[in-house]
Amino acid sequence: MSKETHQYTNNEITIIWKPNVCIHSTLCWKGLTEVFNPKERPWIKMNGASTEKIIEQVRKCPSGALSYFYNEENPGETDKVAAE
User: Fold this and answer.
1) pLDDT tens-digit profile of 12-45?
2) Maximum distance among all Cα pairs of the chain, rounded to whole angstroms
């Protein structure tokens, strides 16, 4: 399996998307269409909602294909960050 990942940032957080892990549950885009839209490219628009709303939606990803990190705390980190 490929280790391909894509990163999207709004300068506060970075979203990591691992397409080969994604199970296409549709929870991300059905819950926050302002950010996640699989019909557009790029499909993640980080300026579509607040950082808090984006984090809330990413945490709902059942496969772990979506994760995030705070840019100032974990530059380069690619694991899901627990709630503070």
Assistant:
1) 999 999 999 999 999 998 999 999 999 999 999 9
2) 33
Please tell me the distance from the alpha carbon of residue 10 to that of residue 47, in angstroms, as a whole number. Answer: 7
Tell me the residue type at 84: E
pTM for the model? 0.80
In the numeric block, which tokens belong to residue 6?
A: 């894509």
**Residues 47-65 pLDDT 10s:** 999 999 999 999 999 999 9
Please count the CA atoms within 13 angstroms of the CA of 40 that sit on its side-chain side: 10
Tokens of 56: 């809330």
* 3-state SS assignment for residue 38: coil
Backbone angles phi, psi at 9, to 5 degrees: -135, 155
Backbone angles phi and psi of 28, in degrees to 5: -65, -55
Q: Position of tokens 């579509």?
A: 48
